[in-house]
Amino acid sequence: MRPPYPPSPERSAELRRRFSEEARSERPDLSTLCLLVGAEADRELDEGGLDEAQVELDRLAGLLPHRPGGPRAWAVALRELLGERMGFHGTPADYQRLESSLLHEVLVRRRGLPILLSVVWMEVARRAGAPVCGVALPGHFVVGFGSGAEQVLADPFDGGRVLTGADAELLVVGATGARLDPAMLRPADPLDVVLRILNNVRAWAVARPERSDVALWAVELSLLLPSHPARLRYERAQLLVQRGDFVGGAVELEAYADVVSAVDEAASKRVRGEAAAARAMLN
Predict the structure, then answer these.
(1) Is the full-model pTM beyond 0.90?
(2) pLDDT score, position 273
(3) Distance of alpha carbon 69 from alpha carbon 148, whole angstroms
């Protein structure tokens, strides 16, 4: 499969405007945000492709039985449709592919990272009227049906396998070495889901220095979210320098140094030194 590359600057500017508006809307739409991430990654994803992906989610929702019952019945219905009939699941090899973090590609390949497969589960279930949410367990994203004591968890990466309490405990212990905390079962906010997806994209790109273009757009989209780690500004500055924009990187480094000076003067001084080194590269 051809590697995806970002669109033209004009197309990218329009996509980012829409991404920012959606992220700041009263009720951000998760599928729309994920598809805009996909369009920023893949110049081949045009407006028709964006519409086709939404239509596919609608189509899959229409294949579910009408209100099958309580949380467990919903979890089983999604597993039977998406996991068994449609073949959505993940494999270890999916962690090595950028496409595994792009919703439109996941809908076609029916493979992806746990969080993207969970987005498919959530968006299909939501359209069908299910009480569904994302659950950001440490190191492994799953979906929850229902709430409180009646909540039922399912693992889309494992084809939608319905999890017992012991299963969920094992996932958390395997990722952190600690016991499952009930606070981990809280519904994930859509914007937190998108930020986590973009973090995965950045992690993919960091392991591939030749794709610093991917790391840069992932950081820049993250910065468009209403809430994001301040350190992303520092990461963007480093990427600009890495890509040869020494002046732009230096300006960003100096701005970040101003931000951190109030809480960590030593760190601020170090970053200013990095800015001076970036400017010196112009000589």
Answers:
(1) yes
(2) 95
(3) 17
